[in-house]
Amino acid sequence: MSGLLKKLPSKLTNKLPAKTSDSTRSPVEKPNSTLKPISNQFTKLLSVTKYLPASARSSILSKAFGKVVPYVGTTGVYYETVEPNQVVVSLNNTKAVQNHIGSIHAVAITLLAETATGFILGLNLPSDRVLLIKSYSVNFYRPIKKGQIAAVASLSDEQRLDILNTPKGEMVIPCVIHDRESDSDRDPIVVEMTWAWIPKSELEARRQGKSSEKPLEADTESKTEVEAEQNDQ
User: Residue 216 in contact with residue 121, Cβ under 8 Å?
Assistant: First the structure.
């Protein structure tokens, strides 16, 4: 499990890494599912914590996943729901993540959406494959001046089966940004995250210069540092 279970705190705590909204219910209906979760390092961690109270479980998962991806851990992203059919992560509008006008910074919002979509793909990806962001677009329609936002990523059983049965592929992972303390009916942000996955053996072959295939490439304007590093290798 690549040491992921070792990320669990040795002592449970009721202290949450972020203040959650009074209503942490997802603004998007959770898809019905009849599929059993696949077995990988993420789902094994979920099974270890599934009998804990919801607040304690979310706190532990937030700390554990924050250590897996250290940069994400520094932003205060809070994992409210982590299931194969839906992942909900939230972020408070604190000074640390604000821009010059007191709204949540665009990069922080993008990171929130990337986290939700990346983790839901990771939950459904066999352990012999690796995921990477391929491209994304983020359209901002109004600022988020206060309160908490949440990113909700959802997958149907059909999409989950497609991921499972496709050794190498890509998919636009549906994601909704919810401004929890706004009365506006207008969506603040619309995002589209395209993720790709390949066998780990192919990635290793590329690193060793043994693969004749061209690397997966994203649009130049939306390529991340992670992608650039992968392509350089």
Answer: no
